[in-house]
Design brief:
By secondary structure, the protein is α/β, with parallel strands linked by helices. The protein is about 35% helix and about 10% strand. The chain has helices spanning about 40-60, 80-90, 95-105, 115-125, and strands at about 25, 65-70, 135-140. It has a 3-stranded parallel beta sheet, sandwiched between helices.
């Protein structure tokens, strides 16, 4: 690995990804920071991704490479759109009720995380201004992990 050369990669169905030098940012999820019932496999995978990112951070720090995990709350992606439809049908409620009463009920901001917000954080993490920020799991979840 050359000093100062790496790529931001993501591991999410949201499809967010950037090629930028000097940083590795894994996309975790709020479920990597807090547990939820009935999400055993998803939560375990996201916790594992945070652990992987922290280990990578320690292994590559001397080469000037950082490793952090971005942990968003709900992002309105095609996958989430389908979940809204499925939940509305299963619960016999409107899609708006699913968004308000199921998905965003614990997000203090009551809004989906925007892809542009996540991209801006990833760009910051790859910048020289974040050179000392490594091995962090950063929640961008509208307060979801505080519930």
């Amino acid at each position: 690995m050359q000093k100062g050369k790496s790529t931001i990669v993501t591991g999410s169905s949201s499809g967010i990804g950037l090629g930028i030098a000097r940083a590795f940012a894994a996309q975790g999820a709020a479920h990597g920071l807090a547990a939820s019932p009935f999400k055993t496999r998803y939560g375990a995978a996201r916790h594992g991704l945070i652990g992987l990112s922290k280990t990578v951070a320690l292994e590559v720090a001397e080469h000037g490479i950082t490793s952090n995990t971005i942990c968003p709350g709900y992002v309105k992606t095609p996958l989430v759109e389908q979940q809204i439809t499925d939940q509305a049908r299963a619960r016999k409620i409107t899609p708006a009720d699913v968004v308000r009463d199921v998905m965003l009920v614990h997000q203090a901001r009551k809004a989906f995380v925007c892809i542009e917000e996540l991209a801006a954080l990833a760009v910051f993490l790859a910048s020289d201004n974040a050179a000392s920020m490594t091995a962090a799991a950063l929640a961008m979840d509208g307060g979801w992990t505080q519930h």
